[in-house]
Write a structure and sequence with these properties.
The complex is a heterotrimer of chains A (about 240), B (about 130) and C (about 300). By secondary structure, chain A is mainly α. Chain A has helices at about 5-20, 25-40, 65-80, 85-90, 95-135, 150-180, 180-195, 200-210, 215-235; strands at about 45-50, 55-60. In chain A, strand 1 (about 45-50) and strand 2 (about 55-60) form a beta hairpin. With about 130 residues, chain B is mostly helical. Chain B has helices spanning about 10-25, 35-45, 50-60, 80-105, 110-125, and strands at about 65, 70-75. In chain B, strands 1-2 form a two-stranded antiparallel sheet. In chain B, a hairpin with a 3-residue loop joins strand 1 and strand 2 (about 70-75). Chain C has two domains: about 1-215, Rossmann fold (3-Layer(aba) Sandwich), CATH 3.40.50.300; about 220-295, Alpha-Beta Plaits. Chain C contains twelve helices and 13 strands. A six-stranded mixed beta sheet of chain C has the order 5-6-7-3-8-9, with helices on both faces. Chain C has a four-stranded antiparallel beta sheet with strand order 11-12-10-13. Chain C has a three-stranded antiparallel beta sheet with strand order 2-1-4, covered by helices on one side. In chain C, helix 4 (about 110-115) packs antiparallel against helix 5. Classes of the chains: A mainly alpha (about 240), B mainly alpha (about 130), C alpha/beta (about 300). Chains in contact: A-C, B-C. The interface of B and C includes residues 42 and 100 of B. Chain A: It comes from Desulfosporosinus acididurans. Chain A: This is ABC-2 family transporter protein. Chain A: Keywords: Membrane, Transmembrane, Transmembrane helix.
């Protein structure tokens, strides 16, 4: 019986295995982001005012749709990793529950890095299209010409939000494993919370969004994700490994 | 040789008898090393424990002897011993069965003896 | 050394009892057959050993560890059944390469040798293989992994008889070359009995018997003859099975208690028949309803 089978070495082996197995997921991400880019091209908001001498037509363009689509994508990606099928794949080879979770989280983090960078690149593509589509004098927004530190901050913020969303998706996936009813219960609980205390969701959102210090913001998100991921691991311990 | 798994004879006895026959045919000579249980298992597609039991019979009957760490070897006079044993035991048992069957079929002793003579001659003729 | 030890092992799913107070142990480097009817608890037992399931009561130890959710045990076990799944992104060739990283005794030469012998297409996906070919492919992984404990749960389902024969031969040859503890559950006892050393027979979640094949082969005797004569000989014997196959003729299977065949043959009209292991197991695990013939007599 071999002894050098520590948790990290096996989890990292599983991570590499999953990375190779899910490399095609990149295409789905790019597809979704291009789709979002096309939606963004029509502008997300426009207003116009007309006076006798002047006609103003303002159109807002933003990469919000791209980022929203990326968020949805990571949510389903994390949901998929908790499916019975991917669990069976893990338990076909050497694993235990913890190493399986660790490698899943590792895979999610890798995808998040990729997803946040690519979504900010897509934002660039949008800007470049705008740049050529309109007369330069017509573009009147501050921050159109990117500063490196802003880009970096954007990527990190997107990545952090994705991490939080991924942890929520992962938790939902585990809950569904425990009982299918959680497909309904999970959103119902969120909705119910809103009913009971309308401030609840806003407060929890503000908890992250209103933080002005990037460092504190990062710490809040990382800690919250860590708690949600740990909760998922703990909950999965209630179940049998493989039916 | 292919083993007969439906036979009343257990497979390990078939193994030991096959080895005895190999010795009688001088395919295995006295003082020579006998197949190991693993070789036999491979040859006959059986579990090595079954093969080991077949080999143990040979050791118990002093047809083979163990050399530590080297395996089993054919004992001196093994051939003589097997011939003697087969005559006294195997042949007798076969005859026992023949006589019982003859009784079932109401075949008289003289008739049976005639039959044996006849088969004897047939085989002799075949040889020539 | 004892590799697997089960003490009063009980497993229930809701109200159904799959395993009931099973105590057994399996020694190192033995090739054991796990035999039993459908629903006797074979798969449940194997999953408990592999650490997939938690016992409801009792204890199980594999390599002196509790196998449930144990990385240590998982690294030393391979569990082959037809539920094995691989990522759809991997071709068969990829799977062989990737799986190799998980098992330190992996024998790539054997894996590729068998892969070519069974003419697999390296570019094909696992999911698109036929059931029999999937079993064959899984078997290749099971053999090449050379895990200290190798578990095959109904490995030959869907294989044709030629492939089954090849599989048993490959299993035995690799076992001889690299001895390890192997458990093989199968319906087709007649096909595997020669390569097995021990048999663990389950009946309704309990241990019916656990003996070496050599002992089991001499466990029972079949007697055939006129009903009266046979019944006379049955006195004082442990009867496992009786069957009236013709008017006034009886076939009985009794436990062999050191009687030599000669003692029986001396009796005129009595015929002695060997009892195959497969039949023996059917008699031992049979229900008390008098067999299928009984249904048609009513």
């Amino acid at each position: 019986m071999s002894l050098n089978n520590n948790l990290l070495s096996i989890a990292s082996r599983q991570y590499v295995y999953k990375l190779k197995a899910n490399s095609s997921g990149v295409y789905s991400l790019i597809f979704i982001q291009v789709l979002a880019l096309l939606f963004s091209l029509s502008g997300i908001q426009s207003m116009s005012s007309v006076s006798e001498t002047l006609r103003v037509n303002v159109k807002y363009f933003s990469a919000d749709i791209i980022i929203s689509f990326t968020f949805i994508w990571i949510f389903f990606m994390s949901l998929r990793l908790t499916s019975i099928n991917s669990k069976t794949m893990d338990f076909t080879l050497v694993t235990n529950r913890l190493s399986s979770h660790l490698s899943n989280i590792g895979l999610l983090l890798t995808t998040i890095i990729f997803g946040s960078i690519s979504s900010s690149l897509m934002g660039f593509v949008l800007k470049i299209i705008m740049y050529f589509a309109f007369d330069r004098s017509q573009i009147g927004v501050n921050g159109f010409y990117p500063v490196f530190s802003d880009i970096l901050l954007g990527i990190i913020t997107t990545g952090l939000y994705m991490t939080l969303i991924a942890s929520m998706g992962y938790l939902l996936g585990i809950l569904i494993q425990i009982h299918v009813l959680f497909v309904v219960l999970y959103p119902a609980a969120l909705f119910g919370l809103e009913k009971v205390n309308p401030q609840m969701l806003k407060l929890s959102f503000d908890f992250f969004a209103s933080e002005t210090s990037p460092l504190l913001f990062a710490i809040r998100i990382i800690l919250s994700s860590l708690i949600v991921f740990s909760l998922s691991c703990l909950l999965s311990n209630r179940m049998e490994v493989r039916k | 040789m292919i083993l007969n798994s439906d036979s009343m004879k257990p497979i390990y006895i078939q193994i030991s008898e096959w080895l005895e026959t190999e010795i009688l045919r001088a395919n295995l000579k006295e003082g020579e090393r006998i197949y190991s249980q693993y070789q036999l298992a491979e040859m006959f597609n059986i579990n090595p424990a079954t093969a080991a039991k077949g080999l143990n019979i040979l050791v118990d009957e002093t047809i083979a002897y163990k050399k530590r760490g080297l395996g089993l070897f054919v004992a001196p006079n093994a051939k003589q011993f097997i011939l003697h044993k087969r005559r006294s035991q195997v042949l007798k048992q076969l005859i026992n069965e023949i006589v019982l069957e003859a009784k079932h079929l109401d075949v008289k002793e003289t008739e049976l003896m005639d039959l044996i003579h006849q088969v004897f001659n047939e085989i002799e003729e075949d040889k020539e | 050394m004892t590799v697997i030890q089960g003490e009063n092992l009980t497993k229930s799913y809701g109200k159904t009892l799959a395993l009931d107070n099973l105590t057994f142990q399996i020694e190192e480097n033995k090739l054991t057959g796990l035999i039993g009817r459908n629903g006797a608890g074979k798969t449940t037992l194997l999953k408990l050993i592999a650490g997939y399931l938690k016992p409801s009561r009792g204890e199980i130890n594999v390599f002196s560890h509790n196998p449930f959710d144990s990385l240590q045990v998982s690294a030393n076990i391979i569990f082959i059944d037809n539920h094995m799944a691989f990522p759809t992104a991997f071709s068969l060739d990829d799977i062989l390469t990737e799986v190799a990283h998980y098992y330190q005794n992996w024998n790539a030469k054997l894996a590729h040798g068998l892969f070519d012998y069974f003419s697999f297409n390296p570019k094909q996906r696992h999911g698109s293989l036929s059931k029999g070919n999937q079993s064959t492919f899984n078997m290749i992984i099971g053999l090449a992994a050379r895990c200290p404990l190798t578990i095959f749960d109904e490995p030959t389902s869907g294989m044709d008889s030629a492939v089954r024969k090849d599989f048993y031969r490959a299993l035995l040859k690799d076992y001889l070359e690299y001895p390890r503890t192997i458990i093989l559950s199968s319906h087709l006892l007649s096909e595997v009995e020669d390569i097995l050393e021990d048999i663990l027979l389950l009946r309704d979640g309990t241990k019916c018997l656990h003996q070496s094949v050599l002992e089991l082969k001499e466990y029972a005797l079949g007697l055939k003859g006129p009903k009266q004569t046979v019944l006379e000989r049955l006195k004082g014997q442990e009867i496992l099975h009786t069957e009236e196959f013709a008017q006034g003729s009886l076939y009985a299977v009794i436990k062999n208690q050191g009687l030599t065949s000669q003692q029986f043959l001396k009796h005129e009209d009595l015929e002695l028949l060997p009892v195959s292991l497969e039949d023996l197991c059917i008699y031992l695990t049979g229900n008390a309803k008098g067999g299928i013939d009984h249904v048609f007599k009513q």
